[in-house]
Every structure is written in C-alpha cells, then in structure tokens.
Design brief:
Length: 432
C-alpha cells in the first residue's frame, strides 16, 4: 500500500504541481481535497505546458483516476472549461474524474459578495483571487444558504434552493453596494442546470469510493492546493485562504483517515513568494526581489499578479513542516538563485527584541518580526542540467543542507527547472 500526500510549506506556488506529476506515475488515484479554482498548478513535460486549477494534476496521466473530494469548492462552469481545454489538448479525461456529491458549489452571489467585501477593506484587502472561494466556504460553515454538488445535479432541489437564496442574497448585496449587479434566479438556474447535465455522470459519493480503494490497496496520492501558511486555522490569518491548506485538511477534505498516509512530502521553494496581502517577514521589496521575480517568472498562474519575493524563511517553513508532520521536503526552483551573489536564509525572528523560532500567531507580532538572517555563499553556475546532488556546486549543496538543518527535515528532492526531468532525487520517492 502506498498513500502519499504532497503539500505546500509556504504561501502557495511552491511547485506542488510538478512534484505531484512526478509521483503520479506510481499512484492509481490522485485526490484534491481542499480549495477550488484559486489554485494554479503548472506542469511541464515533453515540450508541453499544462496549467491546472481545479482539476487534480493526475488528470494528465491516463492510468490515473482523479477525485475531487468533499472539502473542495467547485465552480461548475470553471471545471467544465478546464476539462474542455484538456480534451482539446488531446487528453481524454472526463471519464477519469469523480466529484464528491458533498463538495460545495460556487454560485454567482459568492463572487459579488467577495468583491464587495474586498472593496470595503480598502488597504487591508486580503487580495483574494476573486473566485468566490471564501464566500462559498463561509456559506458551507453557516449552512443556511449552501448548495452542494448533490443538490446541483438534482434539478428540482437545485431550482428550489436558488429561488430561496437569491432574494435574501440580493438584499445583502444591495446593502453592501447600492450599484451591485442584480441576480437573476431564472438565468442562474438555466446556466447551472446546463452545467449539471454534463457533470451529473461524474458526481458520486467519493468518500465511500476512496475508502474502498484504500482497502483494496490502491495507491492514493493527495494533492494539496495553496500552502500551509494560507491555512485558515494555522496560517497567517486573516491573510489566508478559507480552507485547511496544510496537511491538516486531508482527513476532513477527503474522508480518508490521516493515519492511512504513509508519506507526507512538503514542497518549498528555495526562496519565498507570496501573492496578495499580509505579512511577509523575509520580503525583498527591492531590486533583488525584482531580480528573483524575473528569474523565477514569479507571476500568478490564476490572476497574473506579480508575486512578492523574499529570502527562504526557515521559521515559517519549519512551522509548516511540524504542523503537518512532513517526512521530507522537496526544494524547488533552486536554479533561480544561480548568480544572485551571497544568499540569506532566515533562521529566527526578532520580535520586539525577542528572538524566536516560532511563527507568531498574532498578525501584529508577525508584521513586526524582523528576520535573523544566516548568510550562505552563492554560486554562479547554471545548474538546470544537473541530475545528481553530488554534481551541484558545493555552495548549492551547502544551501540545501542549510535548509534541511533549519527546517529539521531531510531534503528528498531538488528541482532545478520546470521540466519533469529537471529533478534531482536524493532518496527514492514513494513507490519508486
Ligand atoms: P504550485 O501552485 O505549487 O503547483 O506551483 P505553480 O505551478 O503555481 O508555480 C511554480 C512555477 O514554477 C511553475 O510555473 C512551474 O512550471 C515552475 N517550476 C517548477 N519547478 C521549477 C524549478 O525547479 N525551476 C524553475 N525555474 N521553475 C520551476
Ligand atoms: P496554489 O495552489 C498562491 C492566496 C491569494 C490571497 C489568499 C486568499 O497555486 O499554490 P482566496 O482566493 O483563496 O480567498 O485568496 O490566498 N492564494 C494563493 N496564493 N497560490 C495559490 O494556490 C493560492 N490560492 C490562494 O492570493 O492572498
Ligand atoms: Mg500555483
């Protein structure tokens, strides 16, 4: 039996998609268990680039069954557009996708409310992806006005729910913004029902299916979206997403017990990036940050926004590794640091004169945290063609060893380029 999970250890975009793609070969089922189409996972191989958002990266490999679990929020139109673009690209995938009937549905009022809330926060805006993610999760936890995939595929039940919810939502939207768009229940029912007709064959009780797959020794691979520092309970609240994007979300988001997981791999960039608002202690808001942004092509997959860039933060990454209990780390985008000169890694925070290795839970303390930096000599060589750890420049090896020492986890894999084969495997990956 091999049950593996891949999670991000920073604020997202750590190259989880690439690591999941590498592991997919030796797994039978790939499962997304949280988030929605706020995620953007880019995978490159054989000269092709694939961008996945709501669909599990496993969709790209024909032997794999893909599952969207109960903890995901689904935008029906977005998922169909994504499926259609994969099909147009020659990947026959619709029959290999199963969507939980328990997953919640993103509706037009979620987008409108989110836009009003973000506008109202002004300079304190979270900087969300504007995909209606947070407002849909809020409705799920609130229970009164929630719609699940099981409701969507039941024509009458869905129409009843929309007719019940829309008048209430219109009052709220008008109060939030007098210029708000007017919801049209009939149009929503019509549009969503057309999507439901296509999605119906894919909607199932994925929990029962996955538990059976587990008992039948199928090899499961959990694909995390976002990063642990964006976790709603454990991240840098309120500048987070609305799901448990650390390893803590796997059980609740899939129905598969945590104890079934054999290997938990945390992915981290060799530096740090963040999109949207919120504290970022190691941020380089200067020319060096811009140099990293350009070298790493750090622009969001979903929104195209420039990502904020900074030094590797071992305090934040160690925290993430500990809360999820990761066994090992995969360090990605090491090639981006080539030629940058002397590098720095943050080994502690100085918060009002107090040195700590713990991530402050209070947003004000995190905003005040000054990074205590450890200098590590850089290297100038192009490392994108290197495939063995021992062949990396000695300073690049030292850099990886420093990360491992400070995060207190072994580094299992180093990525030196976006392509599938631009990978240095230090210890065998699960299943291989
Ligand atoms: P995810 O959201 O964690 O899956 O990460 P993204 O796909 O949003 O962002 C990672 C980006 O880095 C993608 O554009 C990848 O193609 C690219 N990438 C992945 N690994 C490497 C690497 O080792 N070096 C470089 N230069 N790019 C990489
Ligand atoms: P992947 O899976 C990076 C960020 C947004 C914003 C905050 C809340 O590609 O790593 P949301 O729309 O979720 O309510 O936005 O979370 N965010 C991400 N940042 N990568 C992601 O996904 C993200 N998904 C959400 O920028 O700051
Ligand atoms: Mg991404």
């Amino acid at each position: 039996m091999s049950v593996t999970s891949v999670i991000g250890l920073q604020w997202g975009d750590e190259a989880k998609g690439k690591v999941v793609d590498l592991l997919t070969e030796k797994h039978d089922v790939v499962i997304r268990y949280q988030g929605g189409n706020n995620a953007g996972h880019t995978v490159k191989f054989s000269g092709n680039t694939y961008k996945l958002s709501l669909l599990p990266t496993g969709m790209l490999q024909s032997h794999v069954q893909s599952v969207i679990g109960p903890g995901v929020v689904v935008n029906p139109e977005a998922i169909l557009n994504e499926l259609d673009s994969l099909i147009a690209g020659g990947i026959d995938c619709a029959k290999r996708l199963m969507i939980s009937d328990r997953a919640h549905v993103i509706c037009p009022w979620h987008h409108l409310e989110e836009a009003a809330f973000e506008k109202q926060r002004g300079s304190k805006a979270i900087g969300t992806t504007m995909r209606g993610i947070g407002t849909c999760y809020r409705e799920k936890v609130g229970r009164f006005h929630a719609i699940r995939m099981g409701d969507l595929i039941n024509k009458d039940r869905f129409a009843d729910k929309v007719r019940e919810i829309v008048p209430f939502k219109q009052i709220v939207l008008n109060a939030l913004d007098p210029d708000s768009e007017q919801l049209n229940a009939d149009r929503i029912i019509e549009d969503y029902s057309a999507c439901a007709d296509r999605l119906r064959p894919m909607v199932a009780d994925t929990t029962a299916w996955l538990l059976n797959a587990l008992e039948n020794n199928q090899r499961l691979l959990f694909e995390g979206a976002q990063g642990s520092l964006l976790d709603v309970d454990h991240g840098t609240f309120p500048y987070v997403t609305s799901s448990n994007s650390s390893g803590c979300g796997i059980h609740s988001g899939s129905g598969i017990p945590e104890r079934a997981i054999d290997t938990m791999i945390g992915v981290a960039k060799a530096y740090t990036t963040r999109v949207g608002g919120g504290p970022f202690p190691t941020e380089l808001d200067n020319d060096l940050g811009q140099q990293i942004r350009v070298a790493g092509n750090e622009f969001g997959t979903v929104t195209g926004r420039p990502r904020r860039c900074g030094w590797f933060d071992a305090v934040a990454t160690r925290y993430s590794a500990r809360i999820s209990g990761v066994d090992s780390i995969a360090v990605a985008l090491l090639d981006v640091l080539s030629g940058l000169g002397e590098l720095n890694v943050c080994e502690a925070y100085n918060v009002n004169g107090e040195i700590t290795r713990d991530l402050p839970s209070c947003p004000d303390a995190l905003r005040l945290a000054k990074p205590v930096l450890r200098a590590v000599p850089g290297w100038t060589e192009d490392i994108t063609g290197i495939r063995k750890f021992a062949d990396l420049p000695p300073n690049a090896q030292l850099y990886i060893q420093t990360i491992s020492e400070l995060v207190e986890r072994p580094v299992q894999l180093v990525s030196v380029g976006p392509d599938r084969d631009q990978t240095i495997v230090i210890t065998p990956l699960p299943g291989f």
